[in-house]
Design brief:
Strand order of the largest sheet: 1-2
Number of strands: 2
Helix content: 55-70%
Shape: elongated
Low-confidence stretches: none
Structural class: mainly alpha
Order of helices and strands: HHHEEH
Number of helices: 4
Oligomer: single chain
Number of domains: 1
Largest sheet: 2 strands, antiparallel
Length: 77
């Protein structure tokens, strides 16, 4: 499966399922994602021990904007 970032819709689904009492493994199965992806999402985007999809999306966008592509160094001959 190719790498794709979580969408805003998926973040809202994670929030809803977590609030409904589903385990991280059950959430990952319903979203067809790896359990570590769900765990990482909940850990990285928690505010005051509570996950909110709005805040998670803002943090993800901010991280994406700060990210830079690595520059390939060309060896001199």
């Amino acid at each position: 499966m190719a790498y794709t970032q979580l969408t805003e819709t998926e973040r809202y689904q994670i929030f809803s399922l977590k609030e409904a009492g589903f385990s991280q493994r059950a959430i990952s199965k319903s979203l067809n994602r790896n359990p570590s992806t769900i765990s990482r999402e909940l850990r990285r985007n928690r505010e005051a021990k509570k996950y909110t999809p709005e805040q998670a999306q803002l943090k993800a966008v901010a991280r994406r904007q700060c990210a830079t592509k690595a520059v390939k160094v060309k060896p001199e001959i």
